[in-house]
């Protein structure tokens, strides 16, 4: 739980990465959060599949059916959002008067000589 609290604190700090080419905004270090929650989802799914009564064949069949019905819609929604909706929303925000009044800063990490 302390790791999740630190991730939430970092997420609320407001540090974001704007990709000019893709027109997307993301949090810096997102892979840590994705790895943490991804392993939690995977272990929860495995535990659920193992608690199903009926033997290994039933457990494998349930896991296969859930993957077939749940994964494709989730992937489609994610791709549509990141490729179509997020760049449109970012461009709309950047064109607004609110974006022009916000203070922008660039942070560059350079190695020490």
Could you explain how this protein is built, in words?
Strand 1 and strand 2 form a beta hairpin. The chain has helices at residues 2-12, 30-51, 56-94, 97-101; strands spanning 16-19, 24-27. The model has no long low-confidence stretch (mean pLDDT 80). The protein has one domain (2-101). A two-stranded antiparallel sheet has the order 1-2. The two termini are 38 Å apart. By secondary structure, it is mainly α.
Low-confidence stretches: none
Question: What is the H/E order?
Answer: HEEHHH
Strand order of the largest sheet: 1-2
Structural class: mainly alpha
What count of helical segments does DSSP give?
4
Nearest-integer average pLDDT? 80
Helix and strand topology:
Layout: H1 2-12, E1 16-19, E2 24-27, H2 30-51, H3 56-94, H4 97-101
Antiparallel strand pairs: 1-2
Helix pairs in contact: 2-3
Pick out its properties.
113 residues; 2 strands; 7% strand
């Amino acid at each position: 739980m302390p790791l999740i609290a630190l991730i939430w604190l970092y997420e609320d700090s407001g540090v974001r990465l704007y990709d000019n080419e893709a027109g997307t905004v993301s949090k810096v270090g997102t892979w840590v959060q994705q790895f943490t929650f991804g392993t939690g989802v995977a272990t929860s799914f495995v535990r659920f599949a193992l608690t199903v009564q009926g033997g290994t064949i039933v457990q494998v069949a349930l896991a296969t059916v859930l993957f077939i019905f749940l994964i494709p819609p989730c992937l489609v929604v994610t791709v549509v959002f990141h490729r179509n909706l997020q760049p449109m929303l970012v461009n709309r925000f950047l064109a607004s008067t609110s974006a022009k009044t916000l203070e922008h800063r660039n942070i560059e990490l350079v190695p020490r000589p």
